Amino acid sequence: KQAAFRTELSSLLDLMGTGKESLIFMKKRLRRLESQWLQAARRLENKILDTPKEQKLILVHIGFLTEESGDVFSPRVLKGGPLGEMVQWADILAALYVLGHSLKITVSVKELQSYLGVPPGRGNCPLTDPLPFDLIFTDYHGMQQMKQHMGLSFRKYRCRLRVVDTFGTEPAYNHEEYATLHGYRTNWGYWNLHPKQFMTMFPHTPDNSFMGFVTDELNNTERQQVAQNKVRNMAVVYGKEAAMWKLQGKEKFLSVLHKYMEIHGTVYFETQRPPEVPAFVKNHGLLPQQDLQQLLKKAKLFIGFGFPYEGPAPLEAVANGCVFLQPLFNPPHSSLNHEFFRGKPTSREVSSQHPYMEMAIGKPYVLTVDYNNTREFEAAIKAILRSKVEPYLPYEYTSEGMLQRLHAYIQHQEFCSLPFPSPYPINGSQGLHTPSMLLINHTHLVWPQNTPLPHVWPPVTSMQVWLSEEGESCTNACWERNLVCEPSFFVFINQQRLLEQLGALCDSTESVMSHLYPAVSLSVRECYLQREPLLFSCSGHSNKFSRLCPCRDYQPGQVALCRECS
Ligand code: U2F
Q1: If you measure from the C-alpha of residue 312 to the centroid of ligand 1, how many angstroms do you get, rounded to a whole number?
Q2: 84 CA: nearest ligand 1 atom
Q3: Which 3 state secondary structure label does DSSP give 106?
Q4: What are the start-end ranges of the E strands in 232-371?
Q5: Candidates 83, 277, 289, 333: which one to mutate for ligand 1, based on the most atoms within 8 Å of Cβ?
Q6: CB of 239 closer than 6 A to ligand 1?
Q7: Mean of pLDDT values over 482-507
Q8: Which pLDDT band holds residue 279 (cuts at 50, 70, 90)?
Q9: For 236-268, how does the pLDDT look when each residue is reduced to its tens digit (9 = 90+)?
Q10: Model confidence, pTM
Q11: Less CB within 10 Å around the terminal CB: N or C of the chain?
Q12: Has residue 20 got a pLDDT over 90?
């Protein structure tokens, strides 16, 4: 059946259930952004007239909101607790619905069981085949619940899962046996999914799929109003919970800031002003999203104290014409050295409060400075007072951008036809005597004759192959060339001949299970190929190796899609 893009969101609200504060927050957001979603759908529809639009049956099971997982989020919605995940789930629901798919939504294990066909009271009964959904969007909590309640069929159907995972899961942590043997075991990882089944809030690692969320878009009238009403010396502090204001040395830089600007906050409080918030700060209390947007439209500066990491608010601030000022982390924070990231299935190094803002957006919208250096901090404030910036929002965070990306994933990403999790046809040197050649930019891609090319998306024609510097990851090697690492292409390039074409000398070549391979150790002329496809990793790096990297091009403002992807 064809998916027809929808022209209303109100029936979605009826599918969502009631009661929880989190659901109320999400529904309010959906109502507020309804016309933005619908307009975006019309625009996208006109752009992709010729692409396939198969309607999918989709189950959305939001595990972190279930009572069975403790639901610690709902009671904190009105108290300054995390809202980023709710923002994202509301937007995922909107996008799936507007794209015309058939949805079932659950926030309880009981409903989950009924949708999966498990009779009540028979917790671990294997599900009756076939699974009545093409796709299941869930999170780590939800996945755990499904594993418990689906019995054996969980393994069979896990290729249909899409796991919304804020900070991401790197391949080394995802592969159960490898993670256990090599110290990558965490609270979350080791599910042996295809790493692209994990979908992140920001494009953290190309090993996962970038899901994202959306931000309010300004029309021309609103842009003009923003230009007219900006208060040059007004700053809003990022942090809706008093604890976020506890940063060491905060008094010093707040007083510097106060010399130049009027400081506003949106910190939750019950009866009294929280002691962490200095008296000269005008605290509005936690605001409804819409009112926060209005405040940001007036403010010139949105300033972060280092926590929360990587939330939606800085993007909203810049979209409303603020400059975002944030602390640089030196050394970077990661699961190896910071409590917040400990136990998360990634070793990503977080170089500032919000690396996406720092690297994908940057100056003049985002300034990242060392807050311990008062001179640098003060210089940044002065520069902001002088600067003139327009509201800015990358395409990938607009409703159209999110619809485009999710549409492409739903129509093209396919993890069930891969042997799961056993290997794709991996060829060491044995296939190279009768190769067929494909010319990909500067390299010859070799694939043994009579072996079908595995189905991949994005199309392999967007590929360029490079050798990284020693110690460098493929993520960085590609990024330096204004390209993105594309893990789906590793399967094509896992070949000694390609390493040699790029200048590696291979006195020996071994095929090994490691998230660092394919790679070469240049000094000892040892080449290594990958034996386990689930371990192909853009993020892996080690000082000993130059990595063989599959890069691809991308659309400006939409890093998830190659230039010819739709
Ligand atoms: C992030 O979670 P947070 O909820 O702390 O992220 P924020 O960037 O602070 O904001 C989330 C939303 O809260 C809204 C604002 C944002 O869309 O419009 N809001 C509001 O409605 N009223 C206010 O007064 C202030 C903000 C991240 F998203 C999570 O994934 C992480 O777990 C968490 C910790 O790093 O940070």
Answers
A1: 6
A2: 28
A3: strand
A4: 234-237, 262-265, 282-283, 301-303, 323-333, 350-352, 366-369
A5: 83
A6: no
A7: 92
A8: very high
A9: 999 999 988 887 777 888 999 999 999 999 999
A10: 0.94
A11: N
A12: yes
Nearest to 312 by CA among 140, 88, 23: 88
Is the four-CA dihedral 511, 171, 558, 58 of positive or negative sign?
positive
Residues 57-105 have pLDDT tens digits of 999 999 999 999 999 999 999 999 999 999 999 999 999 999 999 999 9
pLDDT, one tens digit per residue, over 137-196 is: 999 999 999 998 877 788 889 999 999 999 999 999 999 999 999 989 888 878 999 999
Q: How many CB atoms lie within 10 A of CB 364?
A: 14
The helix-helix angle for 21-47 and 289-298 (nearest 10°) equals: 70
Tell how far the Cα of 296 is from the centroid of ligand 1, in angstroms.
Answer: 14
Cα of 242 from ligand 1 centre, angstroms? 14
Q: What ipTM was reported for this prediction?
A: 0.91
Q: What is the DSSP letter of 132?
A: S
Which amino acid is residue 442, in one-letter code? H
Cα distance from N-terminal residue to C-terminal residue, the chain: 20
Tokens of 208: 């996962």
Which residue's alpha carbon is nearest to atom 27 within ligand 1? 311
The minimum-distance atom of ligand 1 relative to the CA of 293 is 18
Does the beta carbon of 241 lie inside 6 Å of ligand 1? no
Q: Would you say 163 and 138 are in contact if contact means Cβ atoms under 8 Å apart?
A: yes
Q: Is the CB of 266 under 6 A from ligand 1?
A: yes
Gap from CA of 310 to ligand 1 centroid (Å): 9
Residue 84 in contact with ligand 1 by CB distance below 6 A: yes
Q: From atom 6 of ligand 1, which residue's Cα is the shortest distance away?
A: 311
The finding on whether 289 has its CB within 6 A of some atom of ligand 1 is yes
Residue 508: Cβ within 10 Å count: 10
Cα torsion for 179, 184, 186, 192, to the nearest 10°?
A: -30
| Ligand 1 contacts CB of residue 308 (under 6 A) | yes
Average pLDDT of the chain to the nearest whole number: 91
Q: Whose CA is closest to 533, among 478, 496, 492?
A: 492
Sheet holding 135-138, edge to edge: 102-106, 57-61, 135-138, 161-164, 198-200, 209-210
Beta-bridge partner residues of 555: 558
Of residues 460 and 145, the one with the higher pLDDT is 145
CA–CA separation, 17 and 2 (whole Å): 27
* Distance (Å) from CA 240 to ligand 1 centroid: 8
Closest Cα to atom 29 of ligand 1: 84
CA of 304 to the centre of ligand 1 (A): 12
Residues 314, 324 contacting (CB under 8 angstroms): yes
**434: pLDDT strictly greater than 70:** no
316 lines ligand 1 (CB under 6 A): yes
Closest CA to 103 of 200, 211, 17: 17
The pLDDT score that the predictor gives to residue 440 is 54
What is the bridge-based pairing of β-strands 135-138 and 57-61?
Answer: parallel
Q: Is the per-residue pLDDT at 126 higher than 60?
A: no
